[in-house]
Amino acid sequence: MQLASFTGFLRTLFIIISFYYIFRFLAKLFLPVVIKKVVEKASENMQQQQRGQYQNNWQRTTDGETSIYNTDNARKSRETKKVGDYVDYEEID
User: Fold this and answer.
1) Buried b (16+ CB within 10 A) or exposed e, 21-53
2) Tens digits of per-residue pLDDT, 5-35?
3) What residue spans carry the region label Disordered (predicted)?
4) pTM of the model
5) Backbone angles phi, psi at 43, to 5 degrees
6) What is the residue-wise DSSP string for 3-54?
7) d(Cα 36, Cα 33) in Å, to the nearest integer?
8) Which of 46, 42, 64, 63 is nearest to 54 (CA)?
């Protein structure tokens, strides 16, 4: 059975604390840059989705660049699903 020495314990404790402070220092330097990149990428993806939805609703004709609003989705009536008949139950004494 081996026993841990006091100097070995202090050395391990020093290494753990130094890694903690080095990690904090590096996080303060690089984390804002990483977060900025993530937010920019998310914003870019959102704009692409909005452009895609906008382009799906508007069509361009080749003669004169006239914009025509696509109303196919608006004209479709929404059908309600009939699940079944309503049955009213009464209690029997």
Assistant:
1) eeeeeeeeeeeeeeeeeeeeeeeeeeeeeeeee
2) 889 999 999 999 999 999 999 999 999 999 9
3) 46-93
4) 0.43
5) -65, -40
6) ---HHHHHHHHHHHHHHHHHHHHHHHHHHHHHHHHHHHHHHHHHHHHHHHHH
7) 5
8) 46
